[in-house]
Amino acid sequence: MAQFLISGGVALHGTVAVSGAKNAALPMMAAALLADGPVRLENVPDLGDVRTMTLVLKGLGLEASRQADGALVIETVDPSPVRAACDLVGRMRAGFCVLGPLLARRGRAEVPLPGGCAIGERPIDLHVAGLAALGAEVRIDQGYVVARAGRLRGAEVRLLGPRGPTVTGTANVLSAAVLAEGETTITGAAAEPEIADLGRLLVAMGARIDGLGTPVIRVQGVRRLAGASHRIIPDRIEGATLLLAAAATQGEITVAGVVPQDLAAVLEKLSAAGCDVQVEGDRVTVAARDRLRPLEVAALPFPGVPSDVQAQVTAVLALAQGHSTVRDCVFPSRFAHVAELNRLGACIEHRDGAALITGVDRLTGAVVTATDLRASAALVLAGLAAAGQTVIRAIEHLDRGYERLDEKLRSLGARIKRRSSPTASRPG
Ligand code: EPU
């Protein structure tokens, strides 16, 4: 088990480049199942979930290799497998993104039900209903979703769930509809930039898609898709996390190579809290000179504040003036980080799908444990702000979704280092 050791209380300053978007790369890697030729993806981040997806695809007869220039080239070498490995998809929910493309290209798909995780229940009813609407026969059999179809048929597909659209559900249905016969209209589609970017890859492969980035996506099915090259968009969640480190430490950080409008909701909140926010082309600078003002924040589907940034915002508001509230309308139980933040001296109550925060003057380092990917990032931000030393255990969670985050933070002046956990488990 890896750990981070952080000596906090240092204001961070400098410029850092963000990596490619994890949540765009993963469905794009799955979409390579659709192509009759090699798919070349540029700007793919080197992180745990990408390595896991590579193994999932290998088990389905695809070879993924990193080129000398860093690009990831994925090609089908054996088109016969239809069953995804249980242990891998159980480890990473995004593995479920192979369902749609595998079904559309090979006529059958057997994919393990994705595991739940610390952020709450992870249903798949919208994925199943969406593929059934395209003419697939879908059933659950011994923990696997088993789908089969001749050629899928275009249809009206409604993907709006009780808490908004489904991101990977849209990826699965979109990646199936592109090979269906006739027109598909997806209403209640996810408008997230990562799904729009997946759509741009599919169009480069020969798909016919309109409405990307809106709640209504129209697809004209085609018979086959070719290989293609595509550069993945920057990771807006990593960008937001790094900018929030400026707010957490009362420093000044510039992130380079971002798409500022993908960060708009977060930048608005940072500005409302009293930060100085500057946007210049693909660079965004956040400077925090005074203690933040309190905020009311609701994590929502795009273009709202992303659920994937909710934990990090909660951590930063722990040190703000007065009383703040952070609600997660996408994953109401995504608050495992609250107990760990309170171990650092925060004063946060988790009630009714929200974090009720009473700002404190200071946080104090302690031994804390990461529970999930974005909770890990929240603990890093809190540790950077806390006086004294913080040890964050189980940092494997963070390595799933951030590429060299400790190195990036050190380049900004953070005193953070990685170590394997000492054999004797520490008290507390
Ligand atoms: N939902 C349903 N039925 C379904 C699918 C989803 O009711 O069939 C509900 C969920 O319970 C949730 C809401 O719809 O309340 C949104 O869930 P969604 O399906 O969009 O989540 P996801 O596709 O499983 C992706 C990201 C998550 C991110 C969410 C929300 C990937 C690989 N993962 O998950 O990323 O939090 O969208 O934006 O794209 C992360 O990166 O840390 C992360 C968890």
Rounded to the nearest angstrom, the radius of gyration is 21 Å
**Major β-sheet strand ordering:** 21-22-1-23
Measured by DSSP, the beta-strand proportion falls in 25-35%
The average pLDDT value, as a whole number, equals 96
- Please state the structural category: alpha+beta
Instruction: Bin the helical content.
Output: 25-40%
Question: Count the helices. How many?
Answer: 14
Small molecules in complex = uridine-diphosphate-2(N-acetylglucosaminyl) butyric acid
Principal-axis shape: globular
Distance between the termini: 16 Å
> Could you name the ranges where pLDDT drops below 50 across 5 or more consecutive residues?
424-428
Quick gist of this model?
This protein is α+β, with helices and mostly antiparallel strands. The protein contains 14 helices and 23 strands.
Write the layout of secondary structure elements.
Elements: E1 2-7, E2 13-17, H1 22-31, E3 39-42, H2 48-59, E4 62-66, E5 72-76, H3 86-91, H4 99-106, E6 108-112, H5 125-133, E7 137-141, E8 144-148, E9 156-158, H6 167-177, E10 183-187, H7 193-204, E11 208-210, E12 216-220, E13 228-231, H8 236-249, E14 252-256, H9 264-272, E15 276-280, E16 283-287, E17 296-299, H10 307-317, E18 323-328, H11 337-343, E19 348-351, E20 354-358, E21 367-369, H12 373-385, E22 389-393, H13 396-399, H14 405-410, E23 415-420
Parallel strand pairs: 2-14, 3-13, 9-10, 17-18, 21-22
Antiparallel strand pairs: 1-22, 1-23, 3-5, 4-5, 6-8, 7-8, 10-12, 11-12, 14-16, 15-16, 18-20, 19-20
Helix pairs in contact: 1-2, 1-7, 4-6, 5-6, 6-7, 8-10, 8-12, 10-12
The structure holds uridine-diphosphate-2(N-acetylglucosaminyl) butyric acid.
Uridine-diphosphate-2(N-acetylglucosaminyl) butyric acid binds at residues 23, 26, 93-94, 122-127, 161-164, 166-169, 306-308, 330-331, 373-374, 401.
